[in-house]
Hints:
By secondary structure, the chain is an alpha+beta fold. It has helices spanning 33-36, 39-44, 63-98, 190-202, and strands spanning 104-117, 123-136, 141-145, 150-155, 158-163, 168-170, 174-187, 205-219, 222-237, 248-258.
Amino acid sequence: MADHQRIHPVPEPEQEPPVQKPTVPLVPRGSFRSEKGDPERQQLEPPLRRRTIPYYPPLKPPKKRICSCKRCLCCTCCLLFLLIIIIGALAAAFYFVFQPKIPNYSVDSMRITQFNFNNDMSLLFATFNVNITARNPNKKIGIYYESGSHLSVWYTGVKLCEGSLPKFYQGHRNTTVLSLNLSGQTENASELLQSLQVDQQKGSIPLNLRAKVPVKLKIGKLKLMKWKFLVKCRLDVDSLSANNAIRIRNSDCKFGFRL
């Protein structure tokens, strides 16, 4: 008996389902197609390259320069503070070693040798002789009175006469009496005469004596830089008559100095 041929069914190759086009539009109606693009063209066409703008972060100041500035400022403040401490220590040492004291000045007496007007009362001629006492109370400091000093006598803001101090040296704890001649002339003196007569009737005439004296201090053997003594004395006298005794009712002198 012949063998029966076995026939096996051959499976048919699987067929891929056909690509279906999307029925629902990817881009809603009313919107631009450029927002999403055509899905068919997206699969076929390569994506477009966009030109990107490089991003540059904002510039920041270098930290090293800021740190160096802070360090320089800190060093400057420290040096100034140290310098102030050194100057204060030297000033304290100078004060305790030499014990500086302010000089004293006083107007002891005044005599008028000339005080008259011209014929039309437009000019006033005045000559004063003033005795001034200068005291140096310091034990270790001497005073050199230099040339270029200036003294003046004023009445109601008007300068009556002027002069200067002689050049001399005043030693430690020394008292010197100076006799000074001051002279001058005043213009437009008619109004001054009226005010002077009123004060003379009261028996009290206010005068101001001002002095600017350049000096140099001597400490031991060291001669320091030049200073300028400023002296202001307020005087009340009973009269300004020539060749008469003038009595000083009140005298108040103030002292100052500057470089």
